[in-house]
Amino acid sequence: GEALEVTREVNCVTDFIHGCEDQLQKLKKQKEKGLLYGIPISIKDHIDCKGHIYSGGTVKFLGQVKEEDSVIVQVLKSQGAIPFVKTNIPQTMINYDCSNLIFGQTLNPLNHQKSPGGSSGGEGALIAGGGSILGIGSDVAGSIRLPSSFCGLCGLKPTGNRISPSACSDKTFVLAVTGMLGPIARDVDSLLLCMKALLCEEMFQLDPTVPPIPFNEEVRLR
């Protein structure tokens, strides 16, 4: 409900992910609850979710319904999280604003005369507006860090290849800098919890190209 109110105000959600209720019922039956049990998580538009399109902010991709969840979405679900919305991006994502001709302009909830930043601008706007407590964005040259800064949030671009990009539809460009998926939230502790949940055996098994290095509590405390 809050996500709907926020997107009516600032236009940050592109799609609501169906099956949330069914997933919640499945989670209740699981013996192991997972580190993110019951937490609704928003997902940047270009991250593949089964039964949903990846638009990239362009008409070209509007007919391409994804047949499976990306690795990161599979891992989030296994850890008990509930991906519930997909969020807006600029066209082709190579932009520090957040606007495209399909979904329109996303505004900064702190100041409607300002941009939320990009390219994970829908994530920044939704979380800053109170419509989500944790989201997954992506970053090549600031696409997590800029919206986090513009919207007064915390964000992390992990080390290259730390989290699987598999089945993530952002292969439009060949870039010298490794693009990474990463969390956005209101505080650092939420980022740490998300990273700890993602760096698990299931991710390493689903994508063998990711180095099987679990979350290090000692590094966290430094």
UniProtKB/TrEMBL annotation:
Keywords associated with the record: Hydrolase
SUPFAM superfamilies for the chain: Amidase signature (AS) enzymes
GO MF annotation list: amidase activity; fatty acid amide hydrolase activity
A GO BP annotation: fatty acid catabolic process
Ranges of residues in domain Amidase: 6-212
Keyword Hydrolase: yes
InterPro entries, sorted: Amidase_CS, Amidase_dom, AS_sf, Endocannabinoid_amidase
Highest taxon, organism lineage: Eukaryota
Annotated Pfam families: Amidase
Entry's family note: Belongs to the amidase family.
Xref: PANTHER family: FATTY ACID AMIDE HYDROLASE, FATTY ACID AMIDE HYDROLASE-RELATED
Designated name of the protein: VDHAP protein
Species, as recorded: Pampusana beccarii
Lineage: Eukaryota, Metazoa, Chordata, Craniata, Vertebrata
